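Database export, one record per block. Field names are fixed; values are copied verbatim from the stored entry.
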Amino acid sequence: MKLNDAVFGALFLILAIAVVIASRAFPAIPGQQIGPGAFPTLIASILGVCSLLLIARGLRSGQRWFEGGAWLRSPPHILRFVAVVGALLFYLAAAQTLGFVITGMLLMTGLLRAFSVKWMTALLTAVAATLLIHSIFYKMLKVPLPWGLLQGVAW
């Protein structure tokens, strides 16, 4: 799949403008001439200039805005793509209610099945990987993962 450089340039230009606007809202630090928004504004300005150059290059190239790859004509590949995007949306919607562990196990089992992994292998891998990931993030890195339905269960 290919996108014209002008498309990426436009997306990066929108990002640059958003960063400049957001960095203007940073509070001033008393006694300093340069505030906390100076560096993000500088980087966003450079990104904006590069974005304009990318847009100009894309428009001059004469390429189509979008060229689909061969995988876009393959139903299994499309299903797997939709499964990954759906899994991310499912995590966002369900993690607070179900908790990280339950959501992770359901999500990983579903993804592994979408990629044609056998049921038993998918279940065992999902349980092991979810518990390993939870241990690393929750215990070692101290990331506050949601407990959801498992609230009150000691680990």
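Remark 1: The first helix runs from residue 5 to 24.
Remark 2: The chain has two domains: 2-67, 71-150.
End of record.
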